[in-house]
Amino acid sequence: MSLKKTTQDLVGERPTPEELKKLPRTSLNVVVDNVRSLDNVGMIFRLCELARVDHLYLAGYTGYPQEKRDSRPPQIIERHNHRITKTAVYAVPHQPWTHIADPVPTVTQLKEESHQIICLEQTKESVPYHQVPASDYRLPITLIIGHERLGIREELINLADLTIEIPILGLGNSHNVATACGIVLYHILAKTGNI
């Protein structure tokens, strides 16, 4: 007898979409700032849905699925929907999200509503994420992630209550943005008692 769970076992353990709507979400938001890769956006959707993130904000030129009143050209909408939903699997309809052209007003408002603003960015003041004690996190939290090479825009870093980074042990300059999001998102969930 195998100890490994089958797909049928895993599906049987999950709530139905109707039950899922009634379950509480975590007090976490994620802001994705200027991430170009649609595959990464899809993976971030999937991570956020699995972590029951309260809201996902896709900012700047970050790709996004079709909106109700979408003015983008049809071929762009089709391409974005296809690429994002391919890696997001089932997550898009179950994860609350909004596209925002400029994230600064939204993050400013969230900060005014007592959200702790955390940037995942390599700065001169960043703290390695694993060295942040649980007592330094306070819910609700808005986690900001950005472009792998260009990073998070300076205006958002200036709004941060805490800037964290993932240590780099090899030759590369940064982690893949979706991978980094997953590492830190689940770290925060664990430190805040959500898992």
Q: What is the element string, with H for helices and E for strands?
A: HHEHEHEHEEEHEH
Assign the CATH topology. Answer: Alpha/beta knot
**Taking strands numbered 1, 2, ... along the chain, how are they ordered across the largest sheet?**
3-2-1-6-4-7-5
Roughly what is the average pLDDT, rounded to an integer?
94
Summarize the structure.
This protein has helices at residues 7-13, 17-22, 38-50, 74-88, 103-112, 154-159, 177-191, and strands at residues 28-33, 55-59, 97-100, 116-120, 127-128, 141-146, 162-165. The protein has 195 residues and is α/β, with parallel strands linked by helices.
Describe the structure.
The chain has 195 residues and is α/β, with parallel strands linked by helices. It has one domain: Alpha/beta knot, CATH 3.40.1280.10. Helix content is 37%, strand content 16%. The protein has seven helices and seven strands, in the order ααβαβαβαβββαβα. The protein has helices spanning 7-13, 17-22, 38-50, 74-88, 103-112, 154-159, 177-191, and strands at 28-33, 55-59, 97-100, 116-120, 127-128, 141-146, 162-165. Strands 3-2-1-6-4-7-5 form a seven-stranded parallel β-sheet, with helices on both faces. It is globular. It starts with 6 loop residues before the first helix and ends with a helix. The mean pLDDT is 94.
